[in-house]
Amino acid sequence: PLIIRTLARTTKGFAAPMGAAMVEERCTLFELLVATVCSAQAQDRVTYPVMQRLFAIAHTPEQITRMPIAKLRKLLYPISYYRTKAKHLVALARILLDRYDGRVPGTMDELLELPGVGRKTANLVLGEGMGKVEGVCVDTHVHRISNRLGLVRTKTREATERALMVVLPKRYWL
User: Is a pLDDT exceeding 80 seen at residue 153?
Assistant: First the structure.
């Protein structure tokens, strides 16, 4: 479609989004999940170095749950909502250990049960990390731009995701 060609031309030369960059670097599914949770309402240029610092010290659910919360908060600073995200990461890691033997679950419903995980995060982890493209990663920017361009007429990110799934061929969802 014309809109895809226009966006591709306009964004040529942009840095790869953090999720795609991490997959290229062969990060684990857990690292991708953690980085995506931490990237919510934060810029990749801020989040990426924080994730590198965190993963140098802790990159498994076991390591996250053993870390004192104060240390985790300090590692996550300066990303936005670092205190809340630290709490979510500990709870998320505990659930992965208790319910999934430390592995990242492979369905939308299971991912959405994890603290700090919304549809955008779940779609990114499923798509980039597992090759399961089930939806469109819609954040505030995708929601606003899709509406401004007239691709959709929606009020919420969830409605935008559903509408984009209708107007975009599946190969463009991820």
Answer: yes
